[in-house]
Amino acid sequence: MSTFASALYAVSAPVLEISLLNALQLVLLIVAVGAFALLFKPLLVGIARAMVLVVRPKLSREERLARQQMREAQALQRTLGKMDGVSPSNAAELRALSTRA
Asked: Which of 5, 10, 21, 61 shows its CA 20 to 30 Å from the CA of 96?
């Protein structure tokens, strides 16, 4: 017998020992788990979202606004840094506008 055939027999031997009743029980178990998941999907999704909120809570409105302002200020600083070498007068005007905001 070739090596491939003996390896195939070794792998398939446990599969061949499964009775029809055991296979039917396995299929019914998979169907039951699928039906359970389908029936309780909204509940399971809510539980998953609650777990995400426990690990990473939502930011308050003030925190979101502060982060947005920080990002805008950083973007303005990058723009000013790029404009310094190209057009100093435009950079000065942008600085003046940023102090008013």
From this structure: 61
